[in-house]
Amino acid sequence: MNCGGDERAQTTLDYAIGVGVFLLTLAFVFALFPAVFSPFQTPVSTAETVGAQRVADQVQEEITGPGVRLNTTATTEFFSETSADELRERYGLPPFSHVNVTLHGRGETMGHRYGDAPVVIARRIVVGTGCDPACELEVRVW
To answer: Could you tell me the pTM of the whole model?
Structure first.
């Protein structure tokens, strides 16, 4: 058997096509993988959406004075003296729900620590001391 240069079984082009098909198949599998498990994730309910909006409105009323200007005393009291369970009871959220209130711009957070779960976020803009030019009040319910 003479295996000369013209009688090779595999050429460089054959090898490149094979590797290309393999990489495309691998990319397709990784792209499809998250979609396989998405039907098993629980979506957020309408009750959670309404609850997040209600909590955001009421918290904004508690920590602001006239308009959307922060009341420094009320804000400090709210973030230092309120627990997550008190929030849930005060705003009528179901006992199995979690709530987190954050005032971005002043670095104040209270409530449950958010994990990796479907969440409803309600945001309000407030102005006041320590907010340059404004702070964002963010309420998460999950």
So the answer is: 0.64
